[in-house]
Amino acid sequence: MTPPEKRAAYEVSFLVVYDIPSGNRVDLENPEHVHRVETVRSKATQLFHKLGVQTTESVILISPERENRVDETVELVKKWYGDLERALHKEGLDIELEAIIEVLGLSSRQTEAYKKLAVNFIEKKAADSGRYCERVFNGLEENRSAKSILKILKNLEKHRRSWAEIQKLCCEMKLSNDWNIPKILAGIDDVIEVARKRLAKAE
Question: What is the strand order of the sheet 52-56 is part of?
Answer without folding.
Answer: 52-56, 59-62, 13-19, 100-106
